[in-house]
Amino acid sequence: MTDLNGWAVLAAAASAFLLGGIWYGPLFKQAWCREAGVDPDKPNGHPALVFGGAFVLSLVAAAVFAAFLGPAPALGYAVGAGLAAGLCWVAASFGINYLFAGRSLKLWLIDGGYHTLQFALYGLILGLWH
């Protein structure tokens, strides 16, 4: 982990946080709330804990993905690995849970799409910033 670019990891985590604000905000908020059974006007916990926790978890995911890629991954490899990790590990794992929970395909597409782009962004940033 000492070979990792801490600034790139921090930027990758921030990119996921910003993507989430757009993805679960203006793009898919209403659809996601409807499919997830969440009231869009009722907070789901204290905002500092929710957003702070989300950022910490994004930071953990970015750091571990950076360690997986290594200190100087080629850009194409890093983005491809990000797409694969987001779609084939994260979204596929969500899909298993969503099947057993009886959640909708639409909710899976929203959540799985976010995580696919999240890891692709991680790969883009980590592949560009050695």
Automatic annotation (TrEMBL):
Transmembrane feature ranges: 6-27, 48-69, 75-100, 107-129
InterPro entries, alphabetized: DUF1761 (IPR013879)
Keyword presence, GTP-binding: no
Highest taxon of source: Bacteria
Presence of the UniProt keyword Ribonucleoprotein in the record: no
Keyword vocabulary terms for this entry: Membrane, Transmembrane, Transmembrane helix
Signal peptide positions (record): none
Name this polypeptide is given: DUF1761 domain-containing protein
Organism, scientific name: Pseudoxanthomonas suwonensis
The organism's taxonomic lineage, starting at the top: Bacteria, Pseudomonadati, Pseudomonadota, Gammaproteobacteria, Lysobacterales
